[in-house]
Write a structure and sequence with these properties.
globular; two-stranded antiparallel sheet; 4 strands; mainly alpha; two-stranded parallel ribbon; 188 residues; 8 helices
């Protein structure tokens, strides 16, 4: 049932938002050139890798710059708006249609972070017993984190979802996600 709802929901939402995605892609192409889609390897169900799709929100790394840069150093103005409105995540609906993701589940993480967090955070691997999601209980209950401690805290919410997932819980999460996206209330 969950897969059926994922496919129907993703197809309908993709059809409804296709004009918005097209306008955003055109604006990205005109303003910044290059590819409009950002592709990144993520870990899915059972740790299987897949290519996550998003609209590009950052410029290419600066020439001659060595070492990592913070997102804020590379994010362009249009990218900031796309992220604030979550429009950058609409191409992930293709990942849902492909069966790599679901609407609701733990957010997918990059494999190198998964490897590190599996070593550092007890039971971290349990979150990979189900497909990752566009939204999840942890995203609604805990703000964006950038540390091992944040990952451990978010894991509490992911494990609660894994243990208690179901159609009604998914509907609650989706409704609350709409509230967060539309009205900016809650964690992101």
């Amino acid at each position: 049932m969950k897969r059926f709802l994922d496919v129907v929901g993703a197809a309908v939402l993709l059809a409804l938002t296709a004009p918005l995605i097209a306008v955003a892609a055109l604006a990205l192409r005109i303003r910044h050139g290059g590819p409009v889609l950002f592709r990144q390897r993520r870990s899915g169900r059972g740790g299987a890798p897949f290519e996550l799709l998003k609209l590009r929100t950052m410029s290419d790394p600066r020439p001659g710059r060595e070492g990592p840069e913070f997102d804020a150093e590379r994010m362009h103005r249009l990218g900031g708006w796309l992220r604030a409105t979550s429009i950058d995540e609409l191409p992930e609906l293709i990942n849902v249609l492909r069966g790599e993701m679901s609407f609701v589940g733990p957010r997918p993480e990059r494999p190198q972070f998964v490897d590190m967090l599996n070593r550092e955070v007890r039971y971290y691997s349990v979150r990979h017993c189900m497909k990752p999601g566009l939204t999840g209980w942890a995203q609604l209950r805990y703000p964006y984190g950038a540390s091992v401690n944040d990952a451990a805290e978010k894991l509490r919410y992911d494990l609660f979802y894994v243990k208690n997932h179901g159609l009604l819980f998914d509907l609650l999460i989706m409704l609350q996600t709409v509230e967060v996206v539309m009205f900016g209330r809650g964690a992101r």
